[in-house]
Q: What sequence folds into this?
DNA sequence: TAAATATACTTGACACATAAACTATTTACA
DNA sequence: TGTAAATAGTTTATGTGTCAAGTATATTTA
């Protein structure tokens, strides 16, 4: 797998059309590899990245949240959230509770088992963050954050 | 859409557990936004990012390529490539040719229509690259590339 | 208060990532 | 030469992103 990815990179390496293009592609490629590492870790606990994210949100909030509120806090587009919650519920990691005041609303709560699964992942996740960004010095980390935010601002402007 | 994303960001903003975590999340979020922008552009020409990528590879090579060779050069995992080529073929953007020497091999060639679609995208794509990375000075671009590569090295090691 | 509108989801359809298992063909080697 | 192993690609199955359209409940308004 490692050899394969390396090979891909080499084949792709041809002169870039602009420095900006090089940076964008570099960003996408790096991100891809980072995501792969996290996905692999989550999979060891039978979670997908999206599922892990939702559990994190619920634990962070400390109380049940309406489904659309969860969707708002993830990158997940609304219709996708339904099936995502379905599967988490089926796995016993969350629970659905219909709101009595407003019966359109569905609250989602993390279960004990969900909390347990999350807590098992806490250390490895933090370790992976550190391992990925480990080669960067504190100053470099700060630089990277600043540059990324600058890019992000440019995407925010015109939607 | 823009307001919604901004809202998400604000809600997410709580103290990070480590500077490394902050950098990783920053990286993922930035990347997400960049991908959204490109996906939106490709969709205007009825292409998905994966499809665009494959067309680029074929045009860059200048001659037909075996299916698995294409898969190697993208991030696409092997089984997914079949359907991807199916849809491109159905849209008339590529053509399948079975190799006569080795009948296991299927060559894929870009069609005239595929080339045309690609060329229509050339300018907007380059413009988007420039627009996304525009806020960064040449020196900052270089810095960003260096930092990203450093991160990428760390993922390559024990992958 | 009845009808229009808005809100909170859900369903259905399609594209893609990913893994496991399968087919067809070729190559290696015993 | 004939069988095992490797290679090229496909099929199948599950999870998710995304869009368009639908349902149920609540709110607004005429």
A:
């Amino acid at each position: 797998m490692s050899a394969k990815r390396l090979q891909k990179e080499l084949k792709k390496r041809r002169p870039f059309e602009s420095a900006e293009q090089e940076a964008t592609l570099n960003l996408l490629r790096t991100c891809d590899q980072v995501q792969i590492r996290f996905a692999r870790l989550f999979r060891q606990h039978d979670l997908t990245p999206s599922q892990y994210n939702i559990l994190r949100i619920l634990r962070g909030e400390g109380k049940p949240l309406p489904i659309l509120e969860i969707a708002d806090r993830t990158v997940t587009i609304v219709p996708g959230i339904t099936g995502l919650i379905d599967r988490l519920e089926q796995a016993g990691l969350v629970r659905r509770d219909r709101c009595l005041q407003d019966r359109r609303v569905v609250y989602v709560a993390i279960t004990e088992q969900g909390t347990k699964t999350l807590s098992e992942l806490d250390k490895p996740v933090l370790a992976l963050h550190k391992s990925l960004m480990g080669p960067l010095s504190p100053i470099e980390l700060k630089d990277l954050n600043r540059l990324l935010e600058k890019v992000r601002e440019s995407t925010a402007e015109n939607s």
Q: What stands out?
A: Residues 39, 66-68, 78-79, 81-83, 102-106 of chain B lie near DNA strand D (CB under 10 Å from a C1'). The first helix of chain B runs from residue 2 to 12. Chain B touches chain A through 62 residues (CB under 8 Å).
